[in-house]
Here is the input.
Amino acid sequence: MNGALPAIEITPSLLMVVALAGIAALAAVGVIAFNNPIRSALCLVVNFFMLAALYFTLNAEMIGVTQVVVYTGAIMVLFLFVIMLLNLGAPIVKPEAKEPQTLVGLLLGVVLFGVVGSQLLPPLLSVVKVGAADNYGSPEALGRTLFTQYMFPFEAVSILLLIGVVGSIMLAKRRI
Amino acid sequence: MNGVPIALYLGLGLFMFTIGVVGVVIRRNPIVIFMCIELMLNAVNLTFVTFARYQMSPVPAGGMARESSMMAGQMMVTFVMAVAAAEVAVGLGIMMAIFRLRQNIDVDELNILRG
Here is the structure.
Protein backbone atom coordinates (compact mmCIF):
# COMPACT_ATOMS: atom_id res chain seq x y z
CA MET A 1 0.00 0.00 0.00
CA ASN A 2 1.14 3.50 -0.64
CA GLY A 3 1.12 6.06 2.10
CA ALA A 4 -1.81 6.91 4.30
CA LEU A 5 -4.75 4.70 5.15
CA PRO A 6 -7.76 5.22 2.94
CA ALA A 7 -10.42 7.27 4.68
CA ILE A 8 -13.23 5.03 5.88
CA GLU A 9 -16.57 6.68 6.29
CA ILE A 10 -18.17 6.06 9.68
CA THR A 11 -21.69 4.83 9.06
CA PRO A 12 -24.23 3.23 11.42
CA SER A 13 -23.84 -0.10 9.66
CA LEU A 14 -20.08 0.06 10.11
CA LEU A 15 -20.52 0.74 13.83
CA MET A 16 -22.93 -2.16 14.15
CA VAL A 17 -20.57 -4.57 12.41
CA VAL A 18 -17.69 -3.35 14.58
CA ALA A 19 -19.77 -3.97 17.72
CA LEU A 20 -20.78 -7.47 16.61
CA ALA A 21 -17.21 -8.31 15.63
CA GLY A 22 -15.91 -6.99 18.95
CA ILE A 23 -18.29 -9.16 20.97
CA ALA A 24 -17.42 -12.17 18.81
CA ALA A 25 -13.69 -11.59 19.36
CA LEU A 26 -14.15 -11.19 23.13
CA ALA A 27 -16.20 -14.40 23.30
CA ALA A 28 -13.51 -16.21 21.30
CA VAL A 29 -10.90 -15.12 23.82
CA GLY A 30 -13.20 -16.31 26.61
CA VAL A 31 -13.30 -19.82 25.11
CA ILE A 32 -9.60 -20.34 25.77
CA ALA A 33 -9.29 -18.10 28.84
CA PHE A 34 -11.80 -19.79 31.17
CA ASN A 35 -10.70 -22.83 33.11
CA ASN A 36 -14.19 -24.25 33.46
CA PRO A 37 -15.33 -25.97 30.23
CA ILE A 38 -18.95 -24.94 30.81
CA ARG A 39 -17.94 -21.29 30.68
CA SER A 40 -15.92 -21.94 27.54
CA ALA A 41 -18.95 -23.58 25.93
CA LEU A 42 -21.20 -20.65 26.82
CA CYS A 43 -18.65 -18.21 25.40
CA LEU A 44 -18.63 -20.26 22.22
CA VAL A 45 -22.44 -20.00 22.05
CA VAL A 46 -22.18 -16.19 22.26
CA ASN A 47 -19.53 -16.24 19.55
CA PHE A 48 -21.72 -18.36 17.25
CA PHE A 49 -24.71 -16.04 17.74
CA MET A 50 -22.58 -13.03 16.87
CA LEU A 51 -21.31 -14.85 13.79
CA ALA A 52 -24.90 -15.57 12.74
CA ALA A 53 -25.66 -11.85 13.08
CA LEU A 54 -22.58 -11.04 10.99
CA TYR A 55 -23.84 -13.44 8.30
CA PHE A 56 -27.07 -11.46 8.30
CA THR A 57 -25.14 -8.22 7.83
CA LEU A 58 -23.50 -9.91 4.83
CA ASN A 59 -27.01 -10.69 3.47
CA ALA A 60 -26.36 -14.45 3.77
CA GLU A 61 -29.65 -15.13 5.53
CA MET A 62 -29.83 -18.85 4.90
CA ILE A 63 -26.28 -19.41 6.18
CA GLY A 64 -27.07 -17.31 9.26
CA VAL A 65 -30.15 -19.34 10.10
CA THR A 66 -28.25 -22.57 9.50
CA GLN A 67 -25.51 -21.32 11.80
CA VAL A 68 -27.98 -20.84 14.65
CA VAL A 69 -29.77 -24.14 14.05
CA VAL A 70 -26.72 -26.35 13.48
CA TYR A 71 -24.02 -24.80 15.64
CA THR A 72 -25.78 -23.21 18.58
CA GLY A 73 -28.71 -25.60 18.41
CA ALA A 74 -27.15 -28.99 17.80
CA ILE A 75 -23.40 -28.92 18.23
CA MET A 76 -23.28 -26.85 21.41
CA VAL A 77 -26.02 -28.91 23.04
CA LEU A 78 -23.92 -31.98 22.26
CA PHE A 79 -20.90 -30.32 23.88
CA LEU A 80 -22.85 -29.40 27.00
CA PHE A 81 -24.30 -32.91 27.27
CA VAL A 82 -20.85 -34.49 27.09
CA ILE A 83 -19.48 -32.05 29.68
CA MET A 84 -22.41 -33.01 31.91
CA LEU A 85 -21.98 -36.76 31.34
CA LEU A 86 -18.25 -36.66 31.99
CA ASN A 87 -18.89 -34.43 35.02
CA LEU A 88 -15.84 -32.40 34.11
CA GLY A 89 -15.22 -30.64 37.35
CA ALA A 90 -11.90 -29.99 38.93
CA PRO A 91 -10.74 -33.56 39.80
CA ILE A 92 -10.69 -35.02 36.29
CA VAL A 93 -8.67 -32.36 34.58
CA LYS A 94 -5.94 -30.87 36.68
CA PRO A 95 -5.81 -27.09 36.95
CA GLU A 96 -3.71 -25.90 34.07
CA ALA A 97 -0.51 -24.60 35.54
CA LYS A 98 1.81 -22.05 34.03
CA GLU A 99 3.88 -24.01 31.60
CA PRO A 100 6.29 -23.22 28.80
CA GLN A 101 3.72 -24.42 26.29
CA THR A 102 1.39 -21.56 27.26
CA LEU A 103 4.08 -19.03 26.47
CA VAL A 104 5.05 -20.80 23.24
CA GLY A 105 1.40 -21.01 22.19
CA LEU A 106 0.76 -17.32 22.78
CA LEU A 107 3.94 -16.44 20.91
CA LEU A 108 2.88 -18.66 18.01
CA GLY A 109 -0.50 -16.94 17.94
CA VAL A 110 1.00 -13.45 17.88
CA VAL A 111 3.37 -14.44 15.09
CA LEU A 112 0.59 -16.08 13.05
CA PHE A 113 -1.70 -13.07 13.44
CA GLY A 114 1.09 -10.61 12.72
CA VAL A 115 2.46 -12.33 9.62
CA VAL A 116 -0.85 -13.15 7.94
CA GLY A 117 -2.51 -9.90 8.98
CA SER A 118 0.32 -7.65 7.88
CA GLN A 119 0.55 -9.33 4.50
CA LEU A 120 -3.11 -9.81 3.62
CA LEU A 121 -5.17 -7.11 5.28
CA PRO A 122 -3.60 -3.75 4.22
CA PRO A 123 -4.40 -4.09 0.49
CA LEU A 124 -7.99 -4.96 1.36
CA LEU A 125 -8.64 -2.02 3.68
CA SER A 126 -10.11 0.10 0.92
CA VAL A 127 -12.43 -2.56 -0.53
CA VAL A 128 -15.97 -1.59 0.46
CA LYS A 129 -17.90 -2.34 -2.72
CA VAL A 130 -20.06 -5.46 -2.55
CA GLY A 131 -20.16 -7.50 -5.74
CA ALA A 132 -22.92 -10.00 -5.16
CA ALA A 133 -26.60 -9.39 -5.68
CA ASP A 134 -28.56 -8.56 -2.54
CA ASN A 135 -30.52 -11.82 -2.66
CA TYR A 136 -27.50 -14.06 -3.23
CA GLY A 137 -27.96 -15.68 0.19
CA SER A 138 -31.70 -16.24 0.15
CA PRO A 139 -33.02 -19.75 0.80
CA GLU A 140 -34.30 -19.86 -2.77
CA ALA A 141 -30.93 -19.11 -4.37
CA LEU A 142 -29.09 -21.46 -2.04
CA GLY A 143 -31.55 -24.31 -2.45
CA ARG A 144 -31.65 -24.01 -6.21
CA THR A 145 -27.88 -24.33 -6.44
CA LEU A 146 -27.66 -27.06 -3.80
CA PHE A 147 -30.22 -29.29 -5.49
CA THR A 148 -28.98 -28.82 -9.05
CA GLN A 149 -25.25 -28.21 -9.34
CA TYR A 150 -24.21 -29.63 -5.96
CA MET A 151 -26.46 -32.68 -5.94
CA PHE A 152 -23.63 -35.21 -5.71
CA PRO A 153 -21.77 -33.53 -2.81
CA PHE A 154 -25.13 -33.18 -1.06
CA GLU A 155 -25.75 -36.93 -1.28
CA ALA A 156 -22.17 -37.67 -0.25
CA VAL A 157 -22.61 -35.50 2.85
CA SER A 158 -25.80 -37.32 3.74
CA ILE A 159 -23.93 -40.64 3.62
CA LEU A 160 -21.14 -39.11 5.72
CA LEU A 161 -23.63 -38.00 8.35
CA LEU A 162 -25.18 -41.48 8.41
CA ILE A 163 -21.75 -43.03 8.95
CA GLY A 164 -21.10 -40.45 11.67
CA VAL A 165 -24.29 -41.38 13.50
CA VAL A 166 -23.53 -45.10 13.34
CA GLY A 167 -19.90 -44.56 14.32
CA SER A 168 -20.67 -42.39 17.33
CA ILE A 169 -23.23 -44.90 18.61
CA MET A 170 -20.69 -47.70 18.20
CA LEU A 171 -18.08 -45.72 20.09
CA ALA A 172 -20.29 -44.58 22.94
CA LYS A 173 -22.12 -47.85 23.53
CA ARG A 174 -21.05 -49.76 26.60
CA ARG A 175 -21.19 -53.16 24.97
CA ILE A 176 -21.76 -53.89 21.31
CA MET B 1 -24.77 -3.62 4.54
CA ASN B 2 -22.84 -1.15 2.47
CA GLY B 3 -19.82 0.86 3.47
CA VAL B 4 -18.17 -1.82 5.59
CA PRO B 5 -14.60 -2.62 4.54
CA ILE B 6 -13.94 -6.26 3.77
CA ALA B 7 -10.85 -6.14 6.00
CA LEU B 8 -13.07 -5.93 9.10
CA TYR B 9 -14.66 -9.31 8.45
CA LEU B 10 -11.39 -10.86 7.33
CA GLY B 11 -9.62 -9.47 10.40
CA LEU B 12 -12.20 -11.05 12.68
CA GLY B 13 -11.81 -14.34 10.79
CA LEU B 14 -8.04 -14.22 11.20
CA PHE B 15 -8.35 -13.35 14.88
CA MET B 16 -10.74 -16.23 15.56
CA PHE B 17 -8.53 -18.66 13.67
CA THR B 18 -5.49 -17.52 15.67
CA ILE B 19 -7.38 -17.92 18.95
CA GLY B 20 -8.34 -21.44 17.85
CA VAL B 21 -4.73 -22.36 17.07
CA VAL B 22 -3.51 -20.95 20.38
CA GLY B 23 -6.24 -22.79 22.26
CA VAL B 24 -5.35 -26.13 20.68
CA VAL B 25 -1.71 -25.59 21.69
CA ILE B 26 -2.15 -24.34 25.25
CA ARG B 27 -5.24 -26.15 26.59
CA ARG B 28 -5.16 -29.72 27.88
CA ASN B 29 -8.88 -30.39 28.20
CA PRO B 30 -9.88 -32.25 25.01
CA ILE B 31 -13.38 -30.76 25.05
CA VAL B 32 -11.95 -27.26 24.99
CA ILE B 33 -9.57 -28.35 22.22
CA PHE B 34 -12.62 -29.48 20.27
CA MET B 35 -14.28 -26.12 20.83
CA CYS B 36 -11.16 -24.42 19.49
CA ILE B 37 -11.36 -26.55 16.36
CA GLU B 38 -14.96 -25.41 15.95
CA LEU B 39 -13.75 -21.83 16.36
CA MET B 40 -11.27 -22.32 13.52
CA LEU B 41 -13.91 -23.87 11.26
CA ASN B 42 -16.20 -20.92 11.93
CA ALA B 43 -13.44 -18.46 11.16
CA VAL B 44 -12.99 -20.10 7.78
CA ASN B 45 -16.76 -20.05 7.21
CA LEU B 46 -16.85 -16.33 7.91
CA THR B 47 -14.07 -15.77 5.40
CA PHE B 48 -15.91 -17.82 2.77
CA VAL B 49 -19.16 -15.86 3.21
CA THR B 50 -17.28 -12.55 3.21
CA PHE B 51 -15.59 -13.25 -0.09
CA ALA B 52 -18.86 -14.61 -1.49
CA ARG B 53 -20.51 -11.28 -0.61
CA TYR B 54 -17.80 -8.98 -1.92
CA GLN B 55 -16.94 -10.95 -5.11
CA MET B 56 -13.76 -9.03 -5.77
CA SER B 57 -12.53 -10.65 -8.97
CA PRO B 58 -14.12 -9.17 -12.12
CA VAL B 59 -13.79 -12.47 -14.00
CA PRO B 60 -14.97 -15.62 -12.21
CA ALA B 61 -12.17 -18.02 -11.43
CA GLY B 62 -11.66 -21.19 -13.41
CA GLY B 63 -14.03 -20.25 -16.19
CA MET B 64 -17.08 -20.85 -14.04
CA ALA B 65 -20.27 -19.16 -15.02
CA ARG B 66 -21.04 -15.96 -13.13
CA GLU B 67 -24.06 -17.54 -11.48
CA SER B 68 -22.24 -20.54 -10.05
CA SER B 69 -19.16 -18.62 -8.94
CA MET B 70 -21.57 -16.48 -6.93
CA MET B 71 -22.83 -19.48 -4.97
CA ALA B 72 -19.64 -21.51 -4.58
CA GLY B 73 -18.59 -19.93 -1.28
CA GLN B 74 -21.93 -20.50 0.39
CA MET B 75 -22.03 -24.10 -0.83
CA MET B 76 -18.64 -24.63 0.77
CA VAL B 77 -19.91 -23.19 4.05
CA THR B 78 -22.92 -25.51 3.97
CA PHE B 79 -20.71 -28.55 3.51
CA VAL B 80 -18.23 -27.42 6.16
CA MET B 81 -21.13 -27.19 8.63
CA ALA B 82 -22.33 -30.69 7.76
CA VAL B 83 -18.85 -32.20 8.06
CA ALA B 84 -18.28 -30.34 11.35
CA ALA B 85 -21.48 -31.84 12.75
CA ALA B 86 -20.33 -35.37 11.85
CA GLU B 87 -16.86 -34.66 13.23
CA VAL B 88 -18.22 -33.45 16.57
CA ALA B 89 -20.51 -36.46 16.93
CA VAL B 90 -17.67 -38.92 16.32
CA GLY B 91 -15.12 -36.95 18.35
CA LEU B 92 -17.31 -36.68 21.42
CA GLY B 93 -18.09 -40.40 21.08
CA ILE B 94 -14.35 -41.14 21.13
CA MET B 95 -14.05 -38.95 24.22
CA MET B 96 -16.81 -40.88 25.99
CA ALA B 97 -15.08 -44.16 25.13
CA ILE B 98 -11.72 -42.91 26.44
CA PHE B 99 -13.33 -41.64 29.62
CA ARG B 100 -14.95 -45.03 30.21
CA LEU B 101 -11.57 -46.70 29.74
CA ARG B 102 -9.40 -44.38 31.82
CA GLN B 103 -11.67 -42.23 34.01
CA ASN B 104 -9.49 -39.34 32.88
CA ILE B 105 -9.40 -37.36 29.69
CA ASP B 106 -6.46 -35.03 30.25
CA VAL B 107 -4.60 -35.15 26.94
CA ASP B 108 -1.22 -35.14 28.68
CA GLU B 109 -2.11 -38.33 30.54
CA LEU B 110 -3.10 -40.26 27.42
CA ASN B 111 0.27 -41.76 26.57
CA ILE B 112 -0.49 -45.46 26.06
CA LEU B 113 0.64 -45.17 22.43
CA ARG B 114 4.11 -44.07 23.51
CA GLY B 115 6.71 -46.59 22.33
Q: What stands out?
A: Chain A touches chain B through 93 residues (CB under 8 Å). The CA atoms of residues 3 and 57 of chain A lie 30 Å apart. Chain A has a mean pLDDT of 85.
